[in-house]
Amino acid sequence: MSSASPQIRREVVARSWFRSRAAGLRPDRLNPRKAPPEGAHKPPVGGVVDALRAVVPIERAAGMVVSLVDDRATVLWTDGDPSLRRETARAGFVEGVRWDEQSVGTNAIGLALRTGSATTLLGPEHFELCQRDWFCVAVPVPGPTAGVVNIAGPLAEFHPRTQTLAASLAALVASETRAHRFERLERLRMRYAGHLGDRDLLLVDDEGWVVPSSGPSRGVGARIPAPTAGAVLVPGHGRCPAEPVAGGWLVRLRPRTARTPVTARLRLDRGTPCLVVDEAPDPLELTRRQGELLLLLHLAGTSGLWASDVARVLHGGGSPTVSVRAEVSRLRRALGTHASLVDSRPYRIRAGYHLDPGPDWRDSPFVRGSRVAAIRSAPAQPTASDTREDQNDDR
Hints:
By secondary structure, this protein is an alpha+beta fold. It is built from 11 helices and 15 strands. It has helices at 6-22, 46-55, 82-90, 101-104, 108-115, 162-191, 288-300, 307-315, 321-335, 365-368, 373-376; strands at 65-69, 75-80, 119-122, 134-140, 148-154, 201-205, 231-234, 238-245, 248-252, 262-267, 274-277, 284-285, 342-343, 348-349, 353-356. Helix 2 (46-55) packs antiparallel against helix 6 and helix 8 crosses helix 9 (321-335). 39% of the residues are buried.
């Protein structure tokens, strides 16, 4: 968003201010800071922090605070100029709090997570008065690793190249996290090699990442929701028992006759769309465009849509397919552990998921306010999206 035209930038900030006020927040006070439930988030991988410190001497970075934030806007780690850290702490910006739009109003971290794009906010663009002496630059971490890198500092010391630095740090976080995940999955594979020949067993780590050579791994994608309490919902297999092992879980897939789809309910009765997945503790907040993408895929059924089809429907064919791929990538990031809901080649709702927009979605304010003609004039019954078997896992 920082590279967008000034008018687009103002509109994005203005809409965020409107949502902040609608949420009952006040700009003239320190709104209550929220913390996720205990155990709901994990600290960043130690190697990630070490790599950041090796590139940027954070402890001596005068006028700058660098932070890592997860996909739910929880501040995982922060470091930098000691005096500035004390100042940001007085504003409630500390490890363990949520720094999303619903908690603290318009801010760069919340907007970067919402839009999936690098975001810079300067001074008075922030909602709360206590943040208006700052600049904040938030850049999403590339790839499936959710979250953002944020750089903050005094407004008077802002430099346009700060976003380049933040983007480099975000790429570094993605690389280190990917390397650590590969090592973790390889250790699991070696430790439980004797189980890998069982086609009914899936070996995953504590975050739900699938060991590629285990069971029918191509049929469930690279990641499933993290198992808890001895069970997990696996797309295409329903609720499956999960046995904890050192560093992960062995998931026993249910027989074909017992499979039930995972229901993802697309709620369109609020100001912004959200997705509620079976048994998930929190709804997944989506942007309007992300809600429209899911509706289009729902309407397309098993036939799906190619990138060129999406470009034609959304933009009248005036947008390159690379823009569509970027939008789908941002949607998958917003879906988190359920990113596999959106299949590829062509784009469609993945087998094992049932997308339910509700019985009255065509009469919702969301649909009436959509600028996409194909959504406003949708047929009465879309093709079923949960009755086929998955034939490929191309991404």
